């Protein structure tokens, strides 16, 4: 029987976003509603959010929330209830959700408070009578919530911990144990302790009833030393409780047939209309005479995303006739390396440093291919947007990239199932060869458009995964 879920997250589309976590947290309530589950999402009331969500109804309050008062105001976004934790001493800051550019020094307290409130609501419910059956936590920011729930002794509410990215572990000084209202006896390697520190992610992984991550391949990778980032032993121990459920995309937002951000809408039966979008994109990035594939990159500029490999392989790609349009922001040395690349290849490589949602839409509509050479990728969303927009993905064979793209190897081409290009290992040699294959595939226009159409026909929405989450919740609450 469907029930109620309290989802706890630090980002939520369309309220606040730094990456894919926001897309997923924002899409889950609608997707689960389709399965009969009533999900409300608790997130910090960062500046401006209370107005954006029209959150006026106070449904919870507490006088002493880690150094000041806190209350929860309920609002609606896209028909789904959001619960904004209004605690100005923690969240009324001018920078991003985690700091700007450096992390806030009290992030441990800020997100322990979010987690503590999540656990309290799970146990006591809200003043309007709403009481959840399941507490669903996302990443380190809500990792302490299953721990608070477990230590409270409550057995009624079941908890789910979802790993979106194990690289972020919420490590904090063990000296904060008391301040964060965590029991001293739980500071051991089976629960809160992680190499002498506290880790909120580990706390969640050790105490939640079940663990999920965002693709089956990443679930398997996480138990290995080269991907588990120190948590592999715990995850291998909890293997029976760990499942990988692929992310979907919000097909109302990411759909070239209805996308209001793009000048020329198209579908797989009117692919020719991609051409004016491509022309507009090359003009916008100041590119000319790109005879080969126009590749795009929409990404955080970090080591995870393999941006250095793009820098290394770009010159050869341009020499083969390719063009590059890059949108992203992140580590200073990668931003600089990309700026140098643009200088070396004027008219062939274009760059926008920054975060621009509307431009991202124009890029998927205008691009021939999207490059995702990630060293690890729990799920990845941009390859999915690429598939949806006929912008063929070139991806590393890892995590969700391995699970969502079908490589154009000879057998896959013969069977007419290929949707993109995959490479392994994640190094410049293999990526360079993948780009060479991309250029060759692009030359055969009949096969190329068949591959685009196959990608555009894939089921990429939330239906299947929402049903899997619903089954998981039901198995916990039966
Ligand atoms: P991650 O969450 O690791 O950054 P994902 O692929 O899951 O990777 O999600 C990234 C999300 O952020 C996608 O929705 C992508 O379009 C978006 N994105 C990343 N960088 C930018 C940017 N500079 N401008 C606009 N959107 C961006
Ligand atoms: C993380 C991962 C990304 C995933 C996203 C949403 O940010 O890096 O691969 O798609 O979370 O689950």
Look at the helices and sheets and give the structural class: alpha/beta
Mean model confidence by pLDDT:
97
What Rg, in angstroms, do the CA atoms define? 23 Å
Classify the helix fraction into a percent range: 25-40%
> Uncertain regions: pLDDT < 50 for 5+ in a row?
none
The number of distinct helices, counting runs of at least 4 residues, comes to 19
Bound molecules: adenosine-5'-diphosphate, alpha-D-glucopyranose
Write down the domain tally.
Answer: 2
- Give the class-level CATH name of the largest domain: Alpha Beta
Q: Identify the overall geometry.
A: globular
Overview of the molecule:
With 478 residues, the chain is an alpha/beta fold. The protein folds into two domains: 4-248 and 462-477, Glycogen Phosphorylase B (Rossmann fold), CATH 3.40.50; 271-456, Rossmann fold (3-Layer(aba) Sandwich). It has helices at 20-33, 49-52, 88-91, 107-124, 144-152, 200-207, 216-221, 225-228, 232-237, 274-284, 307-319, 332-344, 357-366, 382-388, 399-404, 410-414, 428-443, 445-457, 463-477, and strands spanning 4-8, 38-44, 57-62, 70-77, 80-86, 134-138, 158-163, 171-172, 193-194, 197-199, 210-213, 242-244, 294-301, 323-330, 349-353, 369-372, 392-396, 421-423. The strands form three sheets. It has a nine-stranded mixed β-sheet, with helices on both faces. A six-stranded parallel β-sheet has the order 15-14-13-16-17-18, with helices on both faces. Strands 8-10-9 form a three-stranded antiparallel β-sheet. α11 (307-319) links the parallel β13 (294-301) and β14 (323-330). α5 (144-152) packs across α6 (200-207), α10 (274-284) packs across α13 (357-366) and α11 crosses α17. It is globular, with a radius of gyration of 23 Å. The structure holds adenosine-5'-diphosphate and alpha-D-glucopyranose. Alpha-D-glucopyranose binds at residues 19-21, 24, 164-165, 214, 247, 377-381, 400.
């Amino acid at each position: 029987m469907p029930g109620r879920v309290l989802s706890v997250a630090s980002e939520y589309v369309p309220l606040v976003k730094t990456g894919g976590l926001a897309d997923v947290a924002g899409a889950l309530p609608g997707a689960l509603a389709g399965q009969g589950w009533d999900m409300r999402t608790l997130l910090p009331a960062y500046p401006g959010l209370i107005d954006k969500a029209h959150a006026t109804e106070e449904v919870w309050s507490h006088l002493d929330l880690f150094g000041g008062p806190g209350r929860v105001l309920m609002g609606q976004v896209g028909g789904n209830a959001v619960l904004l934790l209004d605690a100005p001493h923690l969240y009324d800051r001018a920078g991003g959700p985690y700091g700007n550019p450096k992390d806030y020094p009290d992030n441990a307290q800020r997100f322990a408070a979010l987690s503590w409130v999540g656990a309290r609501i799970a146990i006591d419910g809200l003043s309007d009578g709403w009481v959840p059956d399941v507490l669903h936590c996302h990443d380190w920011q809500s990792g302490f919530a299953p721990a608070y729930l477990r230590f409270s002794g409550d057995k009624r509410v079941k908890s789910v911990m979802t790993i979106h990215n194990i690289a972020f572990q919420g490590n904090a000084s063990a000296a904060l144990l008391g301040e964060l209202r965590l029991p001293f006896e739980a500071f051991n390697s089976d629960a809160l302790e992680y190499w002498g520190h506290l880790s909120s992610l580990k706390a969640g992984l050790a105490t939640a009833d079940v663990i999920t991550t965002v693709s089956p391949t990443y679930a398997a990778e996480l138990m290995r030393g080269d991907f588990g980032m120190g948590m592999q032993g715990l995850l291998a121990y909890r293997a029976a409780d760990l499942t990988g459920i692929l992310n979907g995309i919000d097909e109302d937002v990411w759909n070239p047939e209805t996308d209001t951000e793009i000048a020329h809408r198209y579908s797989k039966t009117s692919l020719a209309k991609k051409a004016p979008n491509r022309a507009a994109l090359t003009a916008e990035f100041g590119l000319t005479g790109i005879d080969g594939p126009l590749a795009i990159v929409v990404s955080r500029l970090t080591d995870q995303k393999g941006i250095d490999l793009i820098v290394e392989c770009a010159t050869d790609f341009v020499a083969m006739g390719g063009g590059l349009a890059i949108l992203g922001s992140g580590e200073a040395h990668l931003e600089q390396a990309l700026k140098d690349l643009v200088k070396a290849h004027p008219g062939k490589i274009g760059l926008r440093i920054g975060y621009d949602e509307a431009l991202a839409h124009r890029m998927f509509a205008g691009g021939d291919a999207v490059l995702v050479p990630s060293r690890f990728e729990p799920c990845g969303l941009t390859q999915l947007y690429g598939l949806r927009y006929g912008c063929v993905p070139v991806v590393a064979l890892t995590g969700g990239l391995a699970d969502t793209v079908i490589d154009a190897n000879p057998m896959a081409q013969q069977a007419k199932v290929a949707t993109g290009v995959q490479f392994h290992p994640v190094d410049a040699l293999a990526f360079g060869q993948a780009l060479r294959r991309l250029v060759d595939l692009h030359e055969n226009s009949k096969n190329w458009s068949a591959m685009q159409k196959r990608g555009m026909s894939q089921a990429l929405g939330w239906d299947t995964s929402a049903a899997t989450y619903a089954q998981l919740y039901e198995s916990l609450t039966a």
